[in-house]
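Me: I keep going back and forth on a fold encoding question. No explanation is needed for now; the record alone will do.

Assistant:
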Amino acid sequence: MSESTITRLREEIAACTRLLVMEGIMDFSGHVSARLPGANRILIQPKDTSRAALTADDILVVDLDGKVLEGKGPAPLETALHTCVYRARPDALAVCHGHPTISTLFSVVDRPLLAVRNFAYRFMDAVPIHPDTTHIRTVEQGRALAQTLGNHSVSLLRAHGTVAVSSSIQELFMDCLDFEENARSLLYAAALGPLLPLTRDEAAALRASYGRADFRAAKVWEHYVHKGRLAGAL
């Protein structure tokens, strides 16, 4: 694993975190992490560093037991949320735990979070809701969350927030934005009249229409990096 790869991941975690704060997906708490390629270690921010001011130099190296190997800790109290997902999901290269307001509302009402925007075809399968309303601080809690998440890309935490899993930081950022925007659109649409969510046939057509996820993820990332710089968030 090259130093340039580690540096890039550190920079992307810091930028992603600050942009998610700017967009209201994350607030004074929450965290983004990335798996170091070929290693049982992850990059994650320290417990108390402001999410709005996080830099690449702040990022910790932590093993999958939650032990800080590099950097000035301590690690976040919910580090087990990340490490247990990485243990359960070999495909997971990036994880975000945030507290987006609109999508979290769907964890406290008896109404499914349906896909109503075209980009939300990726969330067509029922979004699982983890029943634990407390912070995911222990290995036992982390394992239970990973079981709820299963093979899904996103899970709601009841009355708490979300956990999103992806294959890159840029795709993770896109998924976090899209998931919240779909929830917001669903909330608005429900106030207008009977819902007409995406169908399976439409989802199949959209999957072909959108093509590679990494192309759109890179486009979204570039746009928000520039937007963040103009807003002073980066």
Observations:
- The chain has seven helices and eight strands.
